[in-house]
Amino acid sequence: MKRRTFVQNSLLAAAAAGVIPVTSFGRSNADKKARLAFIGVGLRGQNHLDNALRRNDTEVVAICDVDEGMLAMAQSVIKKSGKPMPLIFKGDPYAYRKLLEQKNIDGVIIATPWEWHCPMVIDSLQAGIKYVGTEVILGITMDDHWKVVHEAEKQHAHVSMLENVCYRRDVMAVMNMVRQGIFGELIHMQAGYQHDLREVKFNNGPNGAEGGVEFGEKAFSEAKWRTLHSVHRNGDLYPTHGIGPVAQMLDINRGNRFLSLSSFASKARGLHNYIVEHGGENHPNAKVAFKLGDVVTTHIKCVNGETILLQHDTDLPRPYSLGFRVQGTKGLWMDVNKSIYIEGKAAKPHTWDEAAAWLDKYDHPLWARWSKETANAGHGGMDFFVLHGFIEAIKRQVPTPLDVYDAAAWSAITPLSEQSIELGNATVDFPDFTSGQWMYRKNNFALTDEF
Ligand SMILES: NC(=O)c1ccc[n+]([C@@H]2O[C@H](COP(=O)([O-])OP(=O)(O)OC[C@H]3O[C@@H](n4cnc5c(N)ncnc54)[C@H](O)[C@@H]3O)[C@@H](O)[C@H]2O)c1
């Protein structure tokens, strides 16, 4: 689709939905540089660092980590880029607070273990930083989520979750189709995080070799910290890759909102079986009781009447799939079978069309414009866009495309699902992090080909 047609269509869709027009985006500072600091330069932080260093409109001014090995890897990424070495903060878990005292930081990117996100976001805001991007999961408790929302409001600052799947190419094409009414009125959505993480939750110590069954202090990268969440918690621990795109299509916090949720957890077998198979039944970790059910299923009801089915499935053998299904009064998309069916438009009644032709036809203009830049950016290119949106917002001094209310509502699914399971699958209410503003706020996510 040509850019002009897309903007016209977006404006028509925007007018129909009461959405802010594109002219509301700032443009005057588009040529400025964004000065960035990174807290946490483990595997994900290095990926963002690499993407930031490839750009001509960023300066990396500081990095921080507690792990010398990860810092060395990050330094080699920087050396390879040919850009100047930034200040390095290290030595203790609160060294990042020294980083935050630097006066030349426009934006901070946080890519640390989940339990550090809330304190690091709050400290960044209190240090006066106006743009804070955090990797997925905003906080652990409901209170964490409220604290971040209140602090961002108090500091008039922008907190963005770096939820890259909102920018997946097929997801954006389907969002484009949703906005143009191709599926009719949306009725039901499905999504999730269905990813066999057994080789992520366990490895063989400091070099991360696969096949080991260590976790915690003896392990490398995510196995060091993420696996402990599977020991102690039972809920949808990673909802945002699935819910982020779905929430954008449903205008959550922008004319719609999540109302209530109930979750169910299956029994837990996958992680224990993996330890026994790879480490033997006498390995000390074979005694660990994992609380996380292998498949956690969550149902969400929205105020405008749609339902959402989310699945968290990370401990069993399976190919990767986020399991998207977008279903409206006229038809549906399912990503597992790569198919679309639109009544009256499908090649044959009651028969799937291959999705590819539809997805090409409705390719989002962001992808049409920037696909060259997405090469090698990570996760099929979507990692380029999530950083691009954050950086362009800094340069233009406008709100980030994904805001603090998105971050809070999506990430709060975790503590709410834990609560529901603890209460015997009770239905629990979502708080309204926007304090009623969802009725007036407009969806301006990705309305143009700019960012
Ligand atoms: N969006 C995605 O596709 C995607 C992919 C991978 C990871 N992630 C997310 O990114 C985050 C980081 O994951 P990762 O894979 O890089 O894990 P990792 O373990 O490789 O990296 C985390 C880093 O944080 C550092 N750290 C821990 N405590 C710290 C502290 N107090 N101060 C400074 N540094 C500290 C660790 O030493 C480590 O280097 C998580 O939230 C994870 O869920 C997202």
Tell me about this structure:
The protein is α/β, with parallel strands linked by helices. The protein folds into two domains: 130 residues, 3-Layer(aba) Sandwich (Rossmann fold), CATH 3.40.50.720; 239 residues, 2-Layer Sandwich (Dihydrodipicolinate Reductase, domain 2). Strand 12 and strand 13 form a beta hairpin. Helix 7 crosses helix 12 and helix 10 packs across helix 15. The N terminus is likely disordered. It binds nicotinamide-adenine-dinucleotide.
Fourth-level CATH superfamily of the largest domain: Dihydrodipicolinate Reductase, domain 2
- CATH top level of the largest domain is Alpha Beta
Q: Using DSSP, what is the number of strands?
A: 15
CATH topology of the largest domain: Dihydrodipicolinate Reductase, domain 2
- Count of domain modules: 2
Note the main sheet: 9 strands, mixed
Q: Kindly provide the radius of gyration, computed on alpha-carbon positions and rounded to a whole number of angstroms.
A: 22 Å
CA-based shape: globular
Strand content is 15-25%
Distance between the termini: 17 Å
Helix percentage range:
25-40%
Low-confidence stretches: 1-27
Broad structural category: alpha/beta
- Please state how the strands of the largest beta sheet are arranged side by side: 14-13-12-11-7-10-9-8-15
Question: What integer is the average pLDDT?
Answer: 93
What ligands are attached or bound here?
Answer: nicotinamide-adenine-dinucleotide
Can you name the CATH architecture of the largest domain? 2-Layer Sandwich
Q: What's the number of helices? A: 16
